[in-house]
Design brief:
Largest sheet of chain B: 2 strands, antiparallel
Radius of gyration of chain B: 23 Å
Order of helices and strands of chain B: HHEEHHHHHHHHHHH
Distance between the termini of chain A: 61 Å
Number of domains of chain A: 2
CATH class of the largest domain in chain A: Alpha Beta
Helix content of chain B: over 70%
Distance between the termini of chain B: 31 Å
Shape of chain B: globular
Number of strands of chain A: 10
Order of helices and strands of chain A: HEHEHEHEEHHEHEHEEHHHHHEH
CATH architecture of the largest domain in chain A: 3-Layer(aba) Sandwich
Shape of chain A: globular
Largest sheet of chain A: 7 strands, mixed
Helix content of chain A: 40-55%
Number of helices of chain B: 13
Structural class of chain B: mainly alpha
Oligomer: heterodimer
Radius of gyration of chain A: 22 Å
Number of strands of chain B: 2
CATH superfamily of the largest domain in chain A: Periplasmic binding protein-like II
Strand order of the largest sheet of chain B: 1-2
């Protein structure tokens, strides 16, 4: 009997600990991409603003959307990409930003603002941006990497890593064939699908997060990745370079937004303002690796960053690239179907 | 008046109701709807989700999942049956030690063990380096069909071994002695006594391996590199990325129905014996 009592007491311990931890500090719930913010910076915010940040992460815009739409949890700050922001705005899920509450907006480069998905930045504040491209091993890849065609070169069979994401993989195939990243013509989408089915035997794997180790070990010769991921991989491994194909690519902008049902919108704006402080933004850049529109923060960075092709994206590469649009659901059905057929094919 | 023991089962019954029966009914309900808008209270009943699955693309996927699961189950059986016999022939305390050794890896998280295989199988991993020393250069086993099946066999193997071991252990050694006395040779003894008496364990073990293998999505994702999609991946994709819960529910229902059919067939094979010997179901 004593034993049982002891076990019961032990089982209660975590609740006791939980009891001590609860406090009356304000709470802020942030939903962000995985590995997309330096944890130190969050702790610093908690301390300066005497609040508690519930920090959750997602791996794709779609995952985030499903969760925000269907879950009973509410969030104060989200970090979706362009086309998802467009969808959230059209579904009336966001609240306008009060710009007076975010004086650090002055730090941001105009080039990353007032884009088509949110004209006048009524609902969103730029955080990071980047371009889809190819990171490659300069000792293994002897041909020039300047076109999506290299992903179809059988010289590199079983050495090619594709990105396990519908829009990105389909997009690279569409661009290679001269179509738009936001193609809506069924015949063109299916042509891109057929090209990817032809390419499949050359592909080592469709991955999202294992790229780093496979590129570092030399198991893979090239990988379709976003620029910032390439920047981090290149800062840790020699003999790697990054290129944006000449046919053009996808450029993305990840912005802060505040959902309509946020519990603490004022604190959310303070959080966004805090993240735009040059010192804080610089810390986040060094942690995340993506290109930042925060001009004063760039001056605080180590010189190696400006030499990193994954971080320092040229204006031409950006200009050649398209931003994803939120496609209508009947078009997305064609994409989804095409992607399933690629997945199922041998 | 009911006994205390019967009342003590009620919380479990309630648990089953809330966390198994109700969610299952929700899945059934979802599978018959088309694009419901719950906030507006709009939902229409349809069979479209099931009809969509009857497409050759998806049927081939289902076929592939079954093929992989069957191969994994057969390999598990081929390894587990002789191993079970070997363990039975050991003295008692060593038997327990062997069984504990088989179970210990299961204390480590399933994902972690699968990630470990990714490291082992990769081009710069231990196995490739060993093969390289034997003269096979540049063999990468990761992201192949074999890797997916290996992952299934490795992860689900104990579920095959344990029921087989239990059913073999239940065989009365006197039966085997009697058979030898009456002049049966090893082969006859195996076919006429051991195999029929351990059949419930074999069927039970096969089900325990087959069911998780046919519906897995983690193993095919991690070890197959997204190249060998299984029906589990299709369901995961419908729910998590494509936000088509209705089609996802319909696929789940199809898969569940087929698994129930397979279970029914298994029950027919073993008859009532399934209730007596070595079953874990």
């Amino acid at each position: 009997m004593k034993k049982i009592l002891l076990i019961l007491l032990l089982l209660c311990l975590p609740f006791l600990a939980g009891g001590c931890g609860s406090d009356d500090r304000a709470e802020l719930t942030v939903y962000n991409w995985g590995d997309y913010m330096d944890p130190e910076v969050i702790a610093q915010f908690e301390e300066e603003y005497n609040c508690r940040v519930n920090y959750e992460t997602f791996t794709s815009n779609e995952d985030m959307y499903v969760k925000v739409k269907n879950s009973s949890d509410t969030y104060d700050v989200l970090v979706p990409s362009d086309y998802m922001i467009e969808r959230l705005i059209s579904e009336d899920m966001l609240q306008p930003i009060t710009k007076d509450n975010i004086p650090n907006l002055a730090n941001l480069d105009a080039a990353a603002q007032d884009l088509a998905f949110d004209p006048g930045n009524q609902y969103s504040v730029p955080y990071f941006y980047g371009v889809l491209g190819i990171v490659y091993n300069t000792t293994q890849v002897t041909d020039p990497v300047d076109s999506w065609n290299i992903l179809w070169n059988d010289k590199y069979a079983s050495k090619i890593l594709m990105y396990d994401s519908i829009r990105d993989s389909m997009g690279s195939s569409l661009k290679r064939l001269g179509f738009s990243m936001n193609e809506t013509n069924e015949a063109n989408i299916n042509a891109a699908r057929d090209a990817l089915i032809v390419q499949k035997p050359l592909v080592m794997a469709y991955v999202t997060d294992n790229v780093k180790s496979l590129m570092a070990s030399g198991d893979a010769a090239m990988a379709v990745v976003y620029s910032g991921d390439a920047a981090i991989i290149m800062s840790e491994t020699d003999n790697l370079d990054f290129a944006v194909p000449k046919e053009g690519s996808n450029a993305f902008y990840d912005n802060f937004v505040i959902p309509k049902n946020a519990q603490n919108p004022e604190l959310a704006e303070q959080f966004i303002n805090f993240m735009l402080t040059p010192e804080i933004a610089a810390k986040n850049i060094e942690y995340v690796g993506y290109s930042s529109p925060n001009t004063p923060a760039l001056a605080l960075l180590d010189a190696s960053w400006s030499a990193n092709a994954g971080f320092n994206i040229s204006k031409e590469d950006l200009a050649r690239s398209e931003i994803f649009k939120d496609l209508p659901s009947d078009v997305m059905d064609i994409y989804n179907r095409a992607w399933t057929e690629i997945n199922v094919s041998k | 008046m009911k006994s205390f023991k019967e009342y003590i089962a009620y919380p479990y019954g309630l648990w089953m109701l809330i966390f198994i029966a109700v969610p299952l009914l929700v899945v059934v309900w979802f599978s018959f709807l088309s694009n419901p808008d719950f906030k507006a209270g709009v939902y229409t009943f349809t069979l479209d989700n099931y009809q969509e699955f009857m497409d050759p693309v998806y049927l081939e996927l289902l076929y592939r999942s079954f093929l992989y699961a069957v191969i994994a189950t057969v390999i598990c059986f081929i390894i587990a049956y002789p191993l079970g016999n070997l363990i039975i022939s050991l003295p008692g305390h060593r038997q327990n030690l062997m069984i504990v050794l088989m179970i210990i890896p299961m204390w480590v998280n399933f994902l972690l063990r699968t990630y470990a295989w990714m490291v082992l199988l990769s081009g710069s991993g231990l196995i490739s380096q060993f093969l390289g020393m034997l003269g096979f250069q540049d063999v990468s086993l990761l992201y192949t069909q074999s890797a997916v099946i290996l992952g299934m066999v490795y992860n689900f193997f104990p579920y095959m071994l344990l029921p087989i071991y239990t059913s073999l252990k239940k065989i009365d050694p006197d039966l085997l002695r009697a058979a030898t006395d009456l002049g049966a040779n090893h082969f006859q003894m195996f076919v006429k006594i051991k195999l029929p008496l351990s059949l419930p364990g074999i069927v039970s073990g096969s089900m325990m391996v087959f069911m998780p293998a046919v519906s897995t999505f983690v193993i095919s994702n991690l070890l197959g590199g997204g190249k060998y999609m299984l029906v589990g991946n299709l369901i995961e994709q419908q729910f998590l990325t494509l936000n088509n819960w209705n089609f996802g529910s319909a696929i789940s229902m199809v898969l569940m129905t087929i698994i129930f059919l397979v279970l029914g067939i298994a029950r027919l094979i073993t008859g009532k014996e399934l209730d007596t010997g070595g079953q874990l179901l």
